[in-house]
Specification:
The protein has 77 residues and is an alpha+beta fold. Helices cover 29% and strands 14% of the residues. The chain is globular. The mean pLDDT is 88.
Length: 77
């Protein structure tokens, strides 16, 4: 059984050993689906005891050529 970000079909999960993960989770451009995904990711972060600084949306699956848009940012500490 898949759990966590893997269950959401996330890729780009390396880097945790340095304190940062830049996971990429596929989604359709549907407001309801994006809101649901944000809620799921926040739930996973809460369970794991980690903080999320930024959630952004890549305009293309090809990250090298994609523009990204910030859709959620943590309030200033």
């Amino acid at each position: 059984m898949k759990v966590g970000l893997v269950a959401l079909n996330a890729i780009n999960l390396s880097g945790a050993e340095y304190g940062f993960v830049y996971a990429k989770v596929p989604t359709r451009l549907s407001e309801a689906e994006i809101r649901s995904l944000i809620e799921q990711v926040h739930g996973l972060a809460t369970e794991a005891g980690v903080e999320i600084d930024v959630i952004d949306l890549d305009a293309s699956a090809d990250v090298a050529q994609s523009k990204f848009y910030t859709i959620w940012q943590a309030p200033p500490a």
